[in-house]
Amino acid sequence: MLRFAALALLLAAPPATSPIRVSTRTRETPDGPQRIFVARIDLRDPRVELRVSGAVQKRPEDPEGTEARLTSVPEFAERVGATLAVNANFFAKLAGAPVRWTAGQPVALVGPSVSEGRLVSHANRNGLGHPALLVTKSRDARIRCALEKDLSGKDDVVAGTSHPPTRGCLLLEGGRNRGEQASESLRQRHPRTAAGLTRDRGELILVVVDGRQPGYSIGMTLVELGALMLELGAHDAINLDGGGSSSFVYRPADAPAVTNRPSDGDWRPVANQLGIVLRPR
After folding, report:
1. What is the tally of structural domains in the chain?
2. Pick the residue with more confidence: 6 or 217?
3. Contact, 190 vs 213, CB < 8 A?
4. Which among 27, 124, 146, 232 could bridge 150 via Cys, Cβ 3.0 to 4.6 Å?
């Protein structure tokens, strides 16, 4: 189990009654430091509303398969009024796309996505499902390997990718670390984004780990990420898009913002985001 260095600071501390608690942690390893951003969200608090990027209006020039347009996590947070936001689904280039990811670029999502009850991207109908966070309008949250039938009645869904050769899907499953089931390419140290639920499913834990920045943060393997989520109290968890996409934006109303340091040196425009909006009391 991971043991963190003494630095574990609550940043931009909101009032004790806030349903969002944010902290940063530094873990020292023989290969270098790991900078970690953690948000804990009380799903039982009626002020909490989840927001997932919605479906886009199709344009005549859009290539076949367009499901989203790229935008950065800070831009998404500003647009929907989110106090907290992270990146979510992986995404894929479409025919004729530029080599680098550019803002406004049409893309396809990998895995299912639902935004305020509206389907954005489908799941597999059978076989191995996608590792997904599924939340109803009343904030009943579950993490599972989701198929299309599992999207019914859900208000918000985001997902990672599964690994059919090993039947690997979840990062944590029933309190067990499944990170070693991922493919070799996915087990290298990279920037990471993860979502987990406590055993009682009353608390959502969102984590971003910076990486690809020697001397500042080297990232994590999926086994390390799973161990971290266990350390934080998650019972089930999924690995979301990482690398240069990993983005963490916390904008409390009465304190300075807290953000990670993306490995690209700037905010990468991404296809899908998960935000937390706080309604007034």
Report:
1. 1
2. 217
3. no
4. 146
